[in-house]
Inverse folding.
């Protein structure tokens, strides 16, 4: 039995871990390439000092209906120069990400239209100008003090820039004051010469006239510093949630449960009654396999209604996204069940005394019933692409197998939310830029950075023609006609909004009736499915009893065998004793005859009285003859007694065996009946029964099996998910007024307007209302603090972390703090978290705080490894690099053909993965031959080998000459190789035009480092190794000593893998030997593969 215990890790040790992370983040500021990157790429909003007077000193006309604000960038740190300074002290390493040409804003000052510093929240200071000198001076212990120092620096700058004249009127900021503030900051932080630029430009921001919202400050620091400070306060005050304490290692598992080694545990995990009654509507043939279903079931069992963490470990192509969809379906169902308890959905909302004013409109705030909270699903990742993929895939038409008539959930609004965006919204600094997608419903949306949040609210709330706000107002009977003025005739026409025509909002009365009908339908469908799952559970129980009966019957058969053996032994014993009795009887007869013969010669009475010599002689001889008779008599009595006892024992044993065999025959009949019943169930369920027989089929077979639930029942489970969404829709319609107010209030809060303490306490209710409408929202970790900063701990129901193996441990802390339950999905054996600091600096900071570097800091540690360690369920297996312990494993691989699958399985997963792929495509193989290692021996001054580049050109030329638009990636472990290969290809515009009309975009999408391709796949991958020289063995060791880089490289290829590079230099280095063993070697001469 597993037990959770508080370890010896003290609050001081927890604080040390948080201080370590804070120190690392203090040295990792937000960066930009060019000033216009700070304003979403809009160059017109950047005004350089060299171009003329300060903009607030001359008449400036903002766009119509807008007011203008300014932000002054108070100098920028030169990241390339700063990094070189760090390298000079701490050394360099291969894994570090390059920051060449990037800058980090040192500080920012927000001004109004007149150039006057804003009264509140006007000054933001970066941690980097303060932290860098400390690191260079090896004062690493002080790096954990940033929260205190930040306030001091802000106060100092405020004293400089907030000026008033003799009439107590504020004085606009001028260049000399900016330079004075910049110089004060440089001197205060002791920034070395040449590392910081002077102020040279100002940024413009436009907001609607009358808006109480002021510009959001630029994100200067690490995205995570404020949340790290927030968590540290909770740890200090002993108010940290259980999930955070587990994540930090304050609570650990003594005896984690292993579903790979304990088949009884796995069988229990996939029990029918633990299977959610609803599933994602993926359609027939797309059911979850054993370990996927176990993970979903255990998520529900371990976390539903509780707090905690659970890790799911999924190698490439093992269906992590598929699993997450079923978790989403489970959470939607749980909220629908809570909804169904209300006769009137309006009763789920309780009016508070808080009200939000927004221009001429005001919104009351309603507290949501507790039963409807805790179902929110926030998807987060450090990987922008992963967040985009989840948010785009869930609502995409291709994600479900049902038509619009069968499944549609605010489809037109969803199409708008996920539709095309204007250019200014697409180039958000933090980088999630979803492509337009046709959707089936509003199941998910991308939030996160300011650009995405603004785009979401603009589409979801403010679009008069298609917004959710217009929909709700229609339900409430408000006038929503859209006015259109003809620019030529000046005639105003009124028309019905598109959302009304497409979504057909009901009237309030219709909404009540719809609620009643949908509630009845939902409960009926759920009851039917519950009954079928219970019937399957009874079959499972019968299987368990059958297994017990099998064991009992086998035991009873052995008992009968023992009884029969005992009977047979007694029969032998009887025969032996009978022979002994017969022998004793013969001896008795012989002694008796001799005695009788002697007795017959006995002298007469007078002779005996006279004691004659004959009488005395006879008496003496009588003693001799009598003694054998006495002995024989005694022996015969003993033999007869033993024989009688043995015969009785034999008779008893025979009777006992007969009775036992009669009972056993009855049990055999019962067992045969059970066996027949189970055989019938086994035939009916088509191999879905999970019992000892299933596991005896072997690792490959049981991993591919779908446990218990038939396709017919899965279709009903999918219909329940649809019914649950229909119930959500009806609930929203019936409570439209309350939802309109809460979402209006949340939208106002998203603009950054000031909130009082009572309002802050109700933010959770406002967010829960949005999640009630849009069940899944996504964000990068980088945007969590700005998006959810005021949200109290443990407010959100679920945090689903995707690609957790790529996230640094500290990046997830703020999101985990705000969620009750966390599921981390990822793979530590793919790309590790990206670090920008020298390895030795990372190690020295850990040493200062006495924190184990490999356990708690990137790149060795990640969000995935920490949640793996904190999870109740952990599996272990021996891999090439030693024992690996992970969370709940997923092992069925559906992406790669061989040899890619074999290589990945060997180097990373100890041969545990099971391959389930379709037939091989032969088009590329017919042109380039089967997957191979093309051995190129060329000279190289750097990691780039021109001869290898020519070999790649040859492969691409042959490929595009035969196949139109081939699906191919060119990837390398090294940035310099990618850079030079890109230049090589740019020098062949004739070749590039055959791949795409947009060569620049093709190169961006198709050529890159291995790190940039995680989460992506192509039919064909060309792995360009580089680093052929003997002197570059360190670089080769870096790429091949652990599974991560090679594992990601080979698992990007679905059909074909062509490795280009020096076989001599690479084939025996680290784990590259497995690649060389599986790939045939072809020698390349002058760029022509043989």
């Amino acid at each position: 039995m597993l037990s959770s215990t508080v370890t010896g890790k003290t609050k001081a040790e927890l604080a040390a871990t948080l201080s370590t992370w804070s120190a690392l983040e203090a040295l990792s500021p937000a960066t930009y390439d060019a000033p216009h990157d700070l304003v979403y790429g809009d160059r017109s909003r950047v005004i350089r000092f060299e171009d003329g007077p300060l903009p607030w000193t001359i008449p400036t006309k903002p766009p119509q209906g807008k007011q203008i604000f300014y932000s002054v960038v108070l100098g920028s740190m030169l990241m390339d120069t700063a990094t070189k300074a760090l390298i000079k002290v701490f050394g360099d390493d291969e894994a570090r990400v390059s920051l060449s040409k990037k800058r980090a804003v040192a500080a920012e000052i927000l001004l109004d239209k007149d150039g006057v510093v804003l009264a509140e929240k006007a000054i933001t200071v970066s941690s980097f100008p303060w932290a860098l000198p400390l690191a260079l001076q090896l004062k690493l212990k002080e790096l954990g003090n940033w929260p205190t120092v930040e306030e001091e620096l802000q106060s100092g700058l405020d004293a400089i820039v907030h000026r008033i004249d003799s009439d107590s009127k504020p004085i606009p900021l001028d260049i000399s004051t900016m330079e004075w503030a910049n110089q004060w900051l440089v001197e205060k932080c002791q920034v070395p010469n040449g590392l910081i630029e002077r102020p040279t430009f100002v940024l413009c921001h436009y907001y609607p006239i009358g808006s109480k919202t002021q510009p959001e400050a630029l994100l200067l620091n690490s995205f995570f510093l404020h949340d790290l400070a927030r968590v540290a306060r909770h740890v200090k005050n002993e108010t940290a949630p259980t999930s955070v304490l587990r994540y930090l290692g304050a609570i650990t598992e003594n005896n984690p449960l292993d579903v790979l080694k304990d088949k009884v545990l796995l069988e229990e995990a996939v029990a029918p009654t633990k299977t959610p009654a609803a599933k994602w509507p993926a359609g027939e043939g797309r059911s979850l396999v054993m370990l996927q279903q176990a993970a979903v079931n255990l998520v529900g069992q371990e976390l539903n209604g509780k707090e905690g963490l659970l890790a799911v470990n999924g190698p490439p192509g093992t269906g992590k996204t598929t699993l997450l969809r079923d978790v989403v379906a489970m959470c939607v169902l749980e909220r629908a069940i809570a909804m169904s308890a209300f006769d009137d959905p309006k009763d789920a909302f309780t009016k508070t005394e808080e009200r939000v004013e927004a221009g001429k409109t005001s919104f009351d705030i309603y507290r949501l019933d507790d039963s409807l909270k805790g179902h929110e699903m926030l998807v987060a990742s450090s990987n922008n692409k992963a967040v985009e993929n989840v948010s785009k895939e869930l609502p995409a038409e291709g994600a479900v197998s049902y038509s619009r008539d069968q499944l549609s959930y605010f489809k037109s609004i969803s199409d708008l939310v996920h539709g095309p965006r204007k250019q200014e919204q697409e180039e958000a600094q933090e980088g999630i830029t979803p492509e337009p997608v046709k959707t089936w419903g509003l199941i998910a949306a991308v939030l996160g950075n300011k650009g995405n949040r603004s785009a979401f609210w603009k589409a979801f709330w403010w679009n008069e023609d298609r917004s959710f706000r217009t929909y709700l107002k229609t339900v409430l009977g408000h006038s929503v006609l859209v006015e259109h003025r003809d620019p030529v005739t000046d005639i105003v026409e009124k028309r019905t909004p598109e959302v009304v025509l497409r979504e057909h909002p009901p009237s309030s009365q219709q909404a009540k009736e719809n609620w009643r009908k949908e509630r009845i339908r939902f409960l009926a469908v759920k009851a039917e499915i519950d009954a079928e799952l219970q019937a399957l559970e009874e079959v499972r129980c019968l299987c368990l009893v059958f297994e017990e009966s099998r064991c009992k019957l086998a035991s009873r058969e052995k008992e009968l065998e023992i009884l029969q053996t005992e009977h047979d032994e007694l029969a032998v014993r009887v025969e032996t004793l009978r022979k002994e009795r017969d022998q004793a009887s013969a001896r008795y007869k012989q002694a008796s005859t001799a005695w009788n013969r002697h007795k017959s010669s006995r002298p007469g009475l007078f002779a005996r009285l006279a004691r004659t010599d004959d009488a005395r002689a006879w008496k003496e001889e009588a003693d001799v003859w009598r003694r054998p008779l006495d002995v024989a008599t005694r022996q015969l009595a003993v033999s007869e007694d033993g024989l009688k006892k043995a015969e009785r024992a034999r008779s008893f044993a025979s009777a006992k065996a007969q009775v036992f065999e009669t009972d056993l025959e009855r049990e055999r009949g019962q067992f045969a009946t059970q066996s027949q019943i189970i055989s019938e169930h086994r035939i009916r369920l088509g191999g879905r029964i999970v019992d000892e027989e299933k596991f005896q089929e072997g690792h490959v077979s049981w991993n591919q099996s779908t446990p218990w639930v038939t396709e017919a029942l899965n279709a009903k489970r999918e219909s329940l998910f649809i019914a649950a969404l229909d119930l959500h829709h009806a609930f929203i319609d019936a409570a439209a007024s309350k939802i309109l107010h809460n979402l209006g209030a949340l939208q106002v809060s998203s603009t950054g307007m000031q909130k009082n303490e009572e309002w802050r306490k109700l933010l959770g209710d406002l967010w829960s209302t949005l999640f009630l409408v849009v069940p899944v929202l996504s964000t990068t970790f980088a945007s969590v603090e700005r998006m959810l900063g005021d949200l109290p701990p443990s407010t959100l129901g679920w945090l689903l972390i995707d690609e957790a193996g790529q996230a640094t441990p500290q990046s997830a802390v703020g999101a985990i703090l705000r969620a009750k339950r966390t599921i981390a999905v990822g793979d530590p054996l793919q790309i590790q978290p990206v670090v920008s600091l020298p390895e030795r600096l990372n190690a020295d900071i850990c040493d200062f705080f006495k924190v184990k570097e490999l356990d708690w800091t990137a790149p060795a540690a990640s969000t995935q490894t920490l949640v793996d360690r904190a999870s109740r369920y952990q599996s272990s297996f021996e891999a090439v690099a030693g024992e690996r312990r992970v969370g709940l494993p997923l092992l069925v691989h559906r992406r790669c053909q061989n040899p890619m699958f074999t290589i990945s399985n060997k180097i990373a997963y100890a041969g545990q993965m099971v391959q389930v792929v379709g037939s091989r495509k032969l088009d590329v193989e017919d042109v380039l031959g089967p997957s191979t290692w093309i051995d190129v021996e060329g000279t190289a001054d750097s990691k780039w080998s021109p001869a290898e580049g020519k070999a790649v050109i040859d492969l691409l030329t042959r490929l595009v000459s035969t196949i139109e638009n081939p699906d191919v990636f060119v990837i390398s472990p090294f940035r310099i190789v990618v850079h030079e290969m890109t230049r090589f290809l740019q020098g062949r515009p004739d070749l590039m035009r055959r791949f795409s009309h947009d060569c620049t975009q093709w190169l961006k999408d198709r050529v890159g480092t291995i790190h940039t391709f995680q989460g992506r796949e192509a039919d064909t991958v060309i792995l360009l190794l580089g680093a052929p020289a003997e002197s570059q063995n360190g670089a080769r060791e870096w790429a091949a000593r652990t599974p991560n880089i090679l594992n990601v490289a080979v698992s990007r290829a679905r059909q074909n893998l062509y490795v280009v590079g020096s076989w001599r230099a690479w084939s025996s280095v680290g784990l590259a030997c497995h690649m060389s063993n599986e790939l045939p070697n072809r020698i390349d001469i002058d760029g022509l593969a043989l």
Summary: The radius of gyration is 41 Å. Residues 761 and 792 are 7 Å apart (CA to CA). The longest helix spans residues 508-600. The domain at 901-1082 is CATH 3.40.50.300 (Rossmann fold).
